[in-house]
């Protein structure tokens, strides 16, 4: 392990105006964290400084800057904030943060302290809910990144590889799995795209670690650990912690769709985890359990049981060696030493005889069949040998059977899971069938008020919410409205249905103009999908906001052999003719237009780009005072030149490819917003 003191001895501490650096307290591959004193306020702070050798690594530098920008956007009581961003005297970027003097979660043993585990989980889930709502996925939630301040509050730290909506994956390489493999979700380990549910998986791992004092999967190397997360079944908690197992199973589900919908949903589930382990069956409860089983038997079975008990008593009275002259003769009193064993043996024989003498009811047989069928995965098929049919038949045979509610609840949970998955996969027919079965099962077994149904409705509501969100991203209002029929089938609360209906009606459809986007962005049809294209070219005022925010220097506009144009160089601010703020901006290069698209996406969380020739041809730009051509995504000559579409006011030069790094006074641009 790296010793920070060796770094301190080998290199001088950085010089940062306003701070007196005391010592290095942590090191990573790209940066070093120092304990420092802020001279103006006299407080201790932690300062993260990029290492000198990392400055040449473009990816590492962007990760460092990404972390500073991300933390700067997040102000939450359980997220480590940021005091200042700047550069050291030798030009290295740094940012100052509050100093966390109580160490990190990996240094604490919380096994046996479930109350503290719950407190920490509530804080982390609150922080993640806040970050996720702002488009930030942490991607490296682990014990070492949960720090404690002077008041012993847990705070989430280290957003160095956080993924921000609108940035795509530019800070990472395609197929590269970033994060700590001990806490890494299967999709993250494979290098697939991840969303907020990868963070929830890591919280599940962290929960296991806090409860047990060890990781759920342990391996000799990172690759083996990642494979275990992706393939091995979720391990079982010890008996004393088994009341947490359902929470762990959902948090660490292999597939994101089977995990909690979001951090808020996970926190609600946390509050439903029992406060202590359920009472386990003990040998001393045997008599009470036998009595409970007997009370559940039909009247005829009671009579048989009584006869069996009498037979046992007679057998004990007339055992070999007993000279008894008659049934009512009192047997000799046993000795003290023999009394206890004889009594225990008699009770055991009586219990066995009672159980043998009690014939299993038809409902009991059917419920045993249902248990077997659930273990075999036979939920609704094959016909005549499935758990759903067995429970329905058991309810018809004996609606008051003591085991019926619990087993019916298990079938409802399984049907709910299948319905939720079907909704996510777009199989509405299967979802409707499973929801209809739930409705019938509830009516036949009296489960209308059982906990299984509210849990099912929450899961269905979450699945429908995700379905509508996905439809909105595709500009597919029809798909969003199709989800509303499933809300009716699931008998969701009226308020929930109203909210889903409101969201579905807000989904854009073909022909709609999207609010908040420049250039009258309109939804267009593209085969089976859709995209949005600005009807007007991006205007001068729109581009000016970008240029002022980013400080981007104007590109040179095309110049001809004219003394005036050499003396008075032209750019987008002065293209050689008068323009108002709403006129199309010209004299911007293809590179300028691409940079504008990326900047706009960073501001509002969508993805923008220049249109292809096919997309641009679907809708002609709105006519302006001066006809212009438009930049396209298509390229020529290794993309050193970019395609241009449309006849401009320079009719002789309308559609020829142009140099991508130079502006032209007859070329503007429109944008596509991707689903």
Tell me about this structure.
By secondary structure, the protein is α+β, with helices and mostly antiparallel strands. The chain has four domains: 4-98, Phosphorylase Kinase, domain 1 (2-Layer Sandwich), CATH 3.30.200; 105-272, Transferase(Phosphotransferase), domain 1 (Orthogonal Bundle), CATH 1.10.510.10; 371-505; 521-673, paralog of FGE (formylglycine-generating enzyme) (Alpha-Beta Complex), CATH 3.90.1580.10. 43% of the residues lie in helices and 12% in strands. The chain contains 22 helices and 17 strands. The protein has helices at 4-10, 58-73, 114-133, 186-189, 196-212, 222-231, 245-251, 263-272, 286-295, 299-317, 336-357, 362-375, 387-397, 404-425, 428-445, 452-473, 477-489, 494-505, 540-550, 563-567, 590-604, 613-617; strands spanning 19-27, 31-38, 43-50, 84-87, 93-98, 136-137, 146-148, 154-156, 163-164, 521-526, 529-534, 608-609, 629-636, 641-645, 658-659, 667-668, 672-673. A five-stranded antiparallel beta sheet has the order 1-2-3-5-4. Strands 10-11-17-12 form a four-stranded antiparallel beta sheet. A four-stranded mixed beta sheet has the order 15-14-13-16, with no helix packed on it. Helix 17 (477-489) packs antiparallel against helix 18 (494-505). The model is unreliable at 1-9, 164-179, 278-297 and 299-359 (pLDDT under 50).
